[in-house]
Design brief:
This protein has helices at 3-18, 20-29, 35-69, 71-94, 110-113, 119-150, 152-181, 184-194, 197-211, 215-244, 247-267. The chain has 269 residues and is mainly alpha-helical. The chain has one domain (3-267). Helix 2 (20-29) packs antiparallel against helix 8 (184-194) and helix 6 (119-150) runs parallel beside helix 8 (184-194). It starts with a helix and ends with a helix.
Length: 269
């Protein structure tokens, strides 16, 4: 592993994870949520992640595994790795109660609606949401780190896409905690900390790859990363994009994300 790529991979993962803090800041200082912009942005993130997963990451995983194991075994292991990645992120979702699930999107306007709720319940909801997001972001950190380590030109758009999708999650943590405690500082800290699990995921990825660094390990991990990213896009980003705006806005964002990702990959051919 090259030191430069390693530092870039950790840096990008840290940037993606800590963007939950941006969501917290938006919740405090914005008067209204720009839902149309958020819808297009989340759609854009989904487009980037789906395109790069299926066109680049899955293909690189297959190339790595077929080179090491042969065409038949390598192809089968790539497909299995892809769906194992999907299964793992789905399993994490299944163990998170719906009320604290990071898929539950909030808007800045929800800050005003929270006044009438019980403070203790709000605090509990905020803390559990932060914990849920931390658990949920762990595989995202692994995905960003692995992609960036293999190819920094892949890691940058993935980190940006995940950062965009972490912003509403930061709002989801901040809204209840701020109105339970009246403290912007506490709300920001919880939001900020919930994103730290992404660099922790990167650290786990680094430890794994340090001990078992070969074509098979990279291939399986890359295939799983592709599955994780496609699942996140279909299960989180697209529904959230549609919720925040009109149906066509989110689709325009998806197409734009795919176009930008396609062009960026062609530039590095």
């Amino acid at each position: 592993m090259e030191l430069e790529n390693l530092l870039i991979a950790f840096g990008l993962t840290l940037f993606a994870g800590l963007s939950t803090g941006i969501g917290s800041i938006i919740a405090f200082f914005a008067k209204r949520t720009n839902t149309k912009f958020l819808s297009i942005s989340l759609g854009f993130s989904a487009g980037v992640m789906i395109y790069v997963s299926m066109i680049e990451i899955f293909v690189k995983a297959k190339d790595s595994l077929t080179l090491a194991l042969g065409t038949v075994k390598g192809s089968w292991l790539t497909v299995i790795g892809f769906f194992v990645g999907m299964f793992l992120i789905a399993l994490i979702d299944a163990f998170i109660p719906s009320s604290e699930n990071p898929h539950e999107m909030y808007e800045v306007e929800d800050m005003d609606k929270s006044h009438s709720s019980n403070n203790q319940n709000l605090l509990r909801m905020g803390v559990f949401t932060a914990l849920a997001i931390a658990i949920h972001n762990f595989p995202e950190g692994l995905a960003t780190f692995t992609a960036a380590l293999k190819d920094p030109s892949l890691g940058i758009p993935i980190a940006v896409a995940i950062a965009i999708h972490n912003i509403p999650e930061g709002i989801a943590v901040s809204v209840p905690i701020y109105y339970a405690t009246g403290s912007r500082k506490k709300a920001f800290i919880y939001s900020f900390l919930s994103g730290l699990s992404e660099p922790v995921g990167a650290l786990v990825g680094y430890v794994l790859l340090s001990f078992i660094f070969n074509d098979v390990t990279f291939g399986v991990l890359f295939a799983a990363v592709a599955g994780i990213m496609v699942y996140i896009s279909l299960d989180e980003l697209l529904p959230a994009a549609e919720k925040y705006g009109e149906h066509h806005l989110s689709i325009y964002g998806v197409v734009a994300g795919m176009i930008v990702m396609a062009i960026s990959l062609l530039l590095f051919v």
